[in-house]
Each structure stands twice: as structure tokens, then as C-alpha cells.
Amino acid sequence: MKTSGRKPGSWRGWPWKRGAKTATERPDEGARAAAPAGERHLALAQDSLRRLLDDPALPSGMREALAPEFAEVERMLQKLEQGEIHIAVLGEVSVGKSSLLNALLGEARFATSALHGETRAAAEAHWQEARSGQVCLLDTPGINEVGGEERETMARDVAARADLVLFVVDGDLNSAEQAALDRALAPGTPVVLVLNKADRYTAEERRALVARLVERTQGRLPAEQVVAAAADPAPVTRIVRGADGAEREEKVVRPPDVEQLRERLWQIMEREGETLSALTAGLFAGQVSEKVGRRVVELRRAAAERLVRQYCIAKGVAVAVNPVPAADLLAAAALDAGLVFHLSRLYGLPLSRAEAGSLVTVIATQMTLLMGTVWLAHVVSAALKATTGGLSTVFTAGAQGAVAYYGTYMIGRVAEEYFARGKSWGQGGPKAVVQEILESVDRDSVLAQAREDLAARLRRGDSPRP
User: Fold this and answer.
1) Is residue 390 helix, strand or coil?
2) In the predicted model, is pLDDT for residue 104 greater than 50?
3) Residues spanned by the domain of 249
4) Percentages helix, strand, coil for the chain, rounded to the nearest 5?
5) Residue 211 lies in a domain
6) What is the CATH number of the domain that holds 197?
7) Who contacts 429 (Cβ-Cβ below 8 Å, separation ≥6)?
8) Which of 108, 131, 231, 400 could form a disulfide with 103, with the two C-beta atoms 3.0–4.6 Å apart?
9) How does DSSP classify residue 19?
10) Cα gap 176→141, rounded to integer Å
11) How many CA atoms lie within 13 A of 20 on its CB side?
12) First and final C-alpha spacing in the chain
């Protein structure tokens, strides 16, 4: 076989792959620039993954909540540092995926049987061959199996993390296989399309079928990456004549025919091994970054929701139980400022107490302009408390507390949006953001929740602090 001139399995040899944990342990830019392209790609991919783990901007407590995502990153880093190439097999049930891997390995490492869909979980084995380096073969459950949605998802996840995918068929592509192949090709992962069980066809039929597969994948898959194989050829019957001249039938077990596939795989790995790992790691880093970003947003939103509700209850109780109108207003302002102060820290954009108070003023001003009747009801209720000497408190306090709860809820939602946008109101300014939040919130639902929360808290007689 003609090679690229580099030592087979040379993706193992990039000099800084093992144990590079910090920036000081990584090569300087001059050394990196002088390294071969594949090694540079690997180093950059490793740096990207390491930055995900070491991100100083990650909010406190988020790392524990994101433990599964960071465990994935650690596994990918370990793969890079060990110089492994992962080859995953993908295809429908009973097309001979496990048999194909066993044929490549030269031994039965993966379970096979006549049962439909023998492989029910991902499995792996290292390819022990002189030139194999650190190549790991990954078996997966079959796709498009009735009732096997969870296993199919597992198979796709394994394939998405692989450096190279063997997509196995035993005939022309059906619609489900075409869709699965399209998904496998979409991320840019190299794919070799394998026509297994080729021994079932005549030579002419085999050539025609391979040509058909090449045609179906034209423009997306190089023709040389469509190969035929026979992982477990059916025995053939032949007539033999014994010493006595009598003829008898004899079944002959034929060896696997996977040489074309084997050589194609090594051509790809010897030419592109390092780049394959870098490509997979780069795609993986991007996917995990997006996933982590979404999870951070979800966790912040959930934490913000809890924080806002705590302050809503505290303010509602403080207003409901306090018969002095001026004290109501002072307590309300202090609690709203405290809410904004803590939200700013939750989003990693800390404000001072004074800045938090100024932001509350901006939000409250816009809310007054847009929903003056709500605030008017609040003021009237407060006045009623004072002029009746507290006799009407039992009638008005609950309603006033609910209105206060609602006001803090709105301030919290608007402030949260402000921080989520990076301390920016956007082109429309604060009025547009307040208007957007007002239109998205069901006021009746919030007030109903307020009455429920306040009633429960007042029955317990808890402190109004958040």
C-alpha cells in the first residue's frame, strides 16, 4: 500500500499531547507553528476543551450542576492525550455491524447471534495490530428498530463522538438508512459506507450495487469511501470425491473478506489521523460549549426565579403586615434594591447597592408610565390603612401585599432580562424591555400565586426576610 511517507500510526507521536493541563505546560506559539498541521490542530482542539473546563467566568456553583457535561469534556481530553482514534460502526439491525468489527479485529470480541438486534449497548475494543497505534473500535445498537428508540439515540451519540464512522448496509439504501446516513455526514465526520454481506451477490451484481451507492452519495462521500465487504461469508457447498470414488457434499467455511475496508481505513488514518481527532474534538468542543451555555442559562433562570419569588414573598408580607404607609414604601424600595443587587451577582455582573437602587428607579419609572393604575391601587390601599386606624387592614393588607408582590416580580423579571443581555437594554431602551415583560406575564396568575404564597407565609408567621 502506498502511504503518505509518515510512520504508520504517527498520530501517537505529537510531543505535547500527554498531560498538558495548564497553559504553562503547553508549547509556545513558535513551537506550535513549527509542528506539522495535524499536531497543531490537535493542540488547538485540546486547548479549546481545556478552556471549557477552566473557564473563570463560570458562576459559582454552576460547575457542580454541570458535572455530566464536564465529565464528557474530561473523557474527550483523555482520548486526545492518549492519542486514540475512535471508529464507530452505525447501521440498521442485522446488517452485520458486530461481525464486521470482529472480522477487522481477527477475533470474536463483539457479540453476534442470529437474533434480531443482538447488540443492545455500546461496546468497544482496541485494534491490536502492528500499525494500529491507539485505535478503538466502537460497536453500537442498530438503528430503526421497533421499540429501540433509546438504543438508537445511544448509537447516534456514540457515532457523533467518533473520529470516523463505518456506516454499514447489506443492500441499497432504504429511506431510513438514507436519513441516518445524512445525519452521520452532517457534522463533517468522515464516513466509510460499507456494503456488507457482499458474498450474497454475484460479481456483476456487487459492482452494480456499489455503483448505485456511489451515485446516491455523490457530492457528499468520495467514491473510494464506498467499499464492499463480507464479514461472515455464508459457507459454500462443494462436491468432493473420496478415496473409494464416492462423491459427497462438503460445506466449506470461507474467511472474512474485509481487506478492501481494512486498507481504506489505514489510508485515511495514516493521512488524516491527527486531523480526524482534532476535527472531532473541535466539533465536540463547539457542541459542549453550546450545551454548557444553555445549561448555564437554564440554571441561572431557575436560580433567578427562586430568588425573585423569595423577595416577592418578603415584600408582600412586609407591606401586608405594616400599617404605616411610609414604612411600606421604604421596605419596598430596600427589598427591590436587594433583589437587583443579588440578581446582578447571580449573572456575574455585580452592581453596588447604590447602582442596584438606581436600576430599580429606572425600572419602576417605566412601569409607572406603562401601568399607572396598578400603582394607583397600591397607593390608595396604603392611604386607606392609615385613615381607618388599621380597622380595614384585614380587608386591604392582603390585596396590597399581592400588588407589592406583583411589583417586585416585575422588577425582578425586567432586571433579569437586563443582566441576561449583558447589562444592556438594547436598542429600544428600558421602556421596550419593560413593555416586552409586561406583555409576556399573565398578571392574574402572578396575583393568584401571590395571594397563595402570602396566605401561607402569614399563617406560619414567618419573618418577611427573603
Assistant:
1) coil
2) yes
3) 84-257
4) 60, 10, 30
5) yes
6) 3.40.50.300
7) none
8) 231
9) T
10) 15
11) 27
12) 73
Q: Is the Cβ–Cβ distance between 320 and 385 less than 8 Å?
A: no
Q: Which phi and psi angles does 60 have, rounded to 5°? A: -60, 135
Closest by alpha carbon to 101, among 291, 295, 232, 242? 232
Domain shared by 201 and 305, yes or no? no
Where does residue 338 rank: exposed (0-12), middle (13-18), buried (19+ CB within 10 A)? buried
Domain assignment present for residue 107? The answer is yes
Write down the residue that cell numbers 461469508 correspond to. Answer: 233
Distance CA 271, CA 36 (A): 12
Distances (CA, A) of 46 to 18, 56, 448: 10, 17, 52
The residue written with cell numbers 440554571 in the block is: 299
Say if CB 230 and CB 256 are below 8 A apart: yes
* 248 SS3 class: strand
Spell 411-431 as b/e; 16+ CB within 10 A means b.
bbbbbbbbbbeeeebeeeebe
Model-level pTM?
Answer: 0.56
What 3-state DSSP class applies to 353? Answer: helix
Contact 336, 99 (CB under 8 A): no
Q: Note the pLDDT tens digit of each residue in 146-201.
A: 455 666 777 777 777 788 899 999 999 999 899 889 888 877 778 999 999 999 99
Distance CA 203, CA 434 (A): 72
Query: In Å, how far are 75, 76, 313 from 72, measured between CA atoms?
Result: 5, 6, 40
